[in-house]
Every structure is written in C-alpha cells, then in structure tokens.
C-alpha cells in the first residue's frame, strides 16, 4: 500500500531540492541565486507532473495512470482508485436502472417519470401504448403538451395528488392516473387501463336495470289483478281471466329467476371436469318430444341425430345449450316454419345445428344476440315468454367446452345457429356405434 500524501512528505521533498542549493550557496556564496534556482526546479518538476496528469485525464483516458515520483505517486494512485470506484458505482447504478426499467416494463400499469413541471424523464412500454407516447423521441417533452385534456392539465397544475384522475382518451380507453412524489424534484405517474372495469360496471348497471324492468311488469299485473279481486262485485268470468293471467305472469317470473340462476351458476362455475360421458342422442330425443309438444303442430320439426355420437362434458351445461337453441327456434319463428335440428360428426368435431326457413335476422342484431336481455323483437319475445337470457346461457356453457356459438342469418332467408365441440371431446367410436336416423 502506497503511503498517503502528507505535509511531512511534501516537506522532505522540498528539503531534497533546497538543501543542496543551501549548501552550495554557503560554500560558493550567491545563496539567493542558488535558492532561486532550487525553487525554479521544484516548480518545473511540479509543472511537468501537472502536464502528465492533464494528458492522462483529458487525452489518454486510459485506466493505467502515468508513473509518478515522490509526492505525485500517491496522488496519481489516489486518482486511479477514485476512478475505479466511480466506474464501479456507474456500473452498479446502470444495473440498478436496468433492473428498475425491466421491472417497470413487467408491471400491468403504465409508468411515467416526470419532473414537477411535467418534463418526461422516462416511460415504460405500456404507457406508450395507452398514452400514445414515443420513446426516446418524447424524452424531455412536457407531458402537458402531449396529453391535451383540460382535466389532466388542471390535475397536474393543482399538484393535489391525494385523489386519482379518471379520463376517457381519444383512443376510447378509460384510464386512471395516480401521481406520487418519486425523488427530489420528480414525480412517478402510474397509468392504469380501467376500460374493462368500466365496461363491467356498465354491464352490471344494465343488468340490474333490465332485471328490475323484467320483474316489474309481471308484478304490476299481479298487483292490479289483486286489487281488482278485492272488489266483491268481480264476476266469475273476469275472476277466471284474472287468475289465468296471474298464473301466466307467475310462471314468467319463475322462468326468469330460473334462467338467472342457471346463467349465474354457469358463469361462476370452476373449470369443469370434461371426462363425464354425455349421451347427446338420448338428450336430443327427449328435446324432440318437448319441442313437438311446445309447437303443438304449428311448425314442421325435423331432427337428424347421429345416434352413435356422444361427447365428454358437463351434461347440465350442454343440456342448457341444446335446449335453449331448440326452444328459441320454436318460440321465435312464425307458424308454418320448418325447423331442422342436426347433430353430426364433421372433420372439426361434433356439430350441433338448428336452422329454420323463417324471416331471418337483420345483420345489425347478430353481434348482440348473446347479450343478456337483448331481443330483436321485444314485443314478440314478451308475448312468447322470452327473457332474453337463453343465448347468453348458451354462450357461457359453450365457452366451458372450448366452443362458441355461430349465427348465420339474412332477412328473408332464415337463420342458422350452430356450434362445434372439438374432436378431443368426442367419445371414441369403439364405445358407441355411428348411425344417422332422421325423424320428423
């Protein structure tokens, strides 16, 4: 370890130059001149080492310092050690920044670091996507110039970050801003995409509004007839009609509650066990008899069933999917319509299809048919007792079986509702015989 620079070392170095001059001056005379020469030699020596130091720091910039002698040796070595420490700290700081940015990129929220005035210092990828920022092009830009929303500008200028700010951006995203002090003179802005949460909240409000509306109508009818029945002068025919209507409205409410419970049960169901064998042909034979009873010969109903095509899945959910599609075809098509139900094996899997030659459905309605309480013809649906929940139940039941509902229809050309269960859910042919028997 080299000795540290001290006043003793500087004094001994000065004595090394000055003592010979002092002795020569005492011997030969001219002491001031000899001392002046010694001082000039010391200054020249130090100036020479300063030039070496300056060259090393600003021109050479190598890791190895120039060789030093006497008092300059610990100075060069100390600068060399300080340079090593600074480079190590820079590497540690760069690694820390890299880890911070890597962690920030993994966050499910956007992150923007700004100064208190709003100048952007850094932002992660998600914030660039949500706020349409560009990095590093927007480095040094003021965020108020890039996000031109009056509410956001007021929020940033008030510097009151105890509450979050929610905005709908021009890209249709709903985002929530939370700002907090990050370091001296800097702010950390967390941007969360709450679009889905906003949509779910809207769906929840619509759901309760629709449920209350659907229940209010039969309840109003029941209340009106009950008030009428309090009148002793109500004749027998009118009383009989009132009782019949009340029973009808009660059945309607009961059906609505049952479908709501079914939908809630399917939506909240844990991942189901798809190893249960479901005898679909037997299920469809029962549905065939129920559909014919419901139709009362108002429709021509044809079932084409592959009697050997069974699948693995949840029998209750599959029954809900099959029955809702069949009942919808009977309830919502005019008299004289031909309804064909087909259960067959295709290359993609087991396909269920319900088609009719009725009036069809306009294209603008098709994407919304699986929404809760959505009806193409609200008046007709209420007359037939439809709740608008059937296709929503079908949609969620099929999602648990890796399938989805497809709807094909054009006005005047009938409608076709179908879905395909994947091949892996089909019971092997060795366990069942394949045969197709049409029946009407």
TrEMBL record:
Keywords: ATP-binding, Cell membrane, Kinase, Membrane, Nucleotide-binding, Phosphate transport, Phosphoprotein, Transferase, Transmembrane, Transmembrane helix, Transport, Two-component regulatory system. The chain crosses the membrane at residues 21-45. GO terms for molecular function: protein histidine kinase activity. Residues 210-425 form the Histidine kinase domain. It comes from the Bacteria. InterPro entries: BphY/WalK/GraS-like, HATPase_C_sf, HATPase_dom, His_kinase_dom, HisK_dim/P_dom, HisK_dim/P_sf, PAS, PAS-like_dom_sf. It is found in: Cell membrane. This is Phosphate regulon sensor protein PhoR. It comes from Symbiopectobacterium purcellii.
């Amino acid at each position: 370890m080299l000795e540290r620079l001290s006043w003793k070392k500087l004094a001994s170095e000065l004595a090394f130059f000055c003592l010979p001059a002092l002795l020569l001056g005492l011997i030969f005379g001219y002491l001031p001149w000899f001392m002046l020469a010694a001082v000039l030699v010391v200054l020249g020596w130090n100036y020479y080492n300063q030039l070496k130091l300056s060259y090393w720091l600003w021109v050479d910039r190598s890791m190895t310092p120039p060789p030093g002698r006497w008092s300059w040796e610990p100075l060069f070595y100390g600068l060399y050690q300080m340079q090593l420490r600074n480079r190590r700290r820079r590497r540690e700081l760069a690694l820390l920044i890299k880890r911070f940015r890597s962690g920030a990129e993994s966050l499910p929220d956007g992150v923007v670091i700004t100064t208190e005035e709003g100048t952007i210092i850094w932002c992660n990828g998600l914030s660039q996507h949500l706020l349409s920022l560009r990095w590093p092009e927007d480095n040094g830009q003021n965020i108020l110039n890039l996000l031109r929303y009056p509410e956001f500008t007021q929020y940033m200028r008030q510097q009151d970050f105890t509450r979050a700010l929610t905005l709908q951006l021009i890209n249709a995203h709903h985002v929530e801003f939370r700002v907090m002090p990050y370091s001296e003179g800097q702010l950390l802005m967390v941007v969360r995409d709450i679009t889905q949460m906003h949509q779910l909240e809207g769906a929840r409000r619509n759901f309760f509004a629709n449920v209350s509306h659907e229940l209010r109508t039969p309840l109003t009818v029941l209340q009106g007839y009950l008030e009428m029945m309090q009148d002793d002068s109500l004749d027998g025919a009118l009383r009989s009609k009132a009782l019949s209507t009340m029973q009808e409205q009660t059945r309607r409410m009961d059906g609505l509650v049952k479908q709501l419970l079914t939908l809630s049960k399917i939506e909240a169901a844990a991942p189901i066990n798809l190893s249960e064998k479901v005898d679909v042909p037997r299920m469809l034979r029962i549905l065939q008899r129920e559909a014919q009873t419901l139709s009362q010969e108002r429709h021509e109903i044809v079932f084409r069933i592959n009697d050997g095509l069974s699948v693995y899945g949840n029998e209750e959910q599959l029954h809900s999917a099959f029955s809702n599609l069949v009942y919808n075809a009977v309830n919502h098509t005019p008299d004289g319509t031909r309804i064909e139900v087909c259960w067959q094996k295709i290359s993609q899997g087991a396909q269920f299809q319900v088609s009719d030659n009725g009036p069809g459905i306009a294209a603008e309605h098709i994407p919304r048919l699986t929404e809760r309480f959505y009806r193409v013809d609200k008046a007709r649906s209420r007359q037939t007792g439809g709740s608008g929940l059937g296709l929503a139940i079908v949609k969620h039941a099929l999602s648990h079986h890796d399938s989805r509902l497809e709807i094909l229809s054009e006005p005047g050309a009938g409608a076709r509702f179908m879905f395909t269960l994947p091949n892996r859910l089909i019971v092997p042919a060795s366990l069942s015989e394949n045969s197709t028997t049409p029946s009407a």
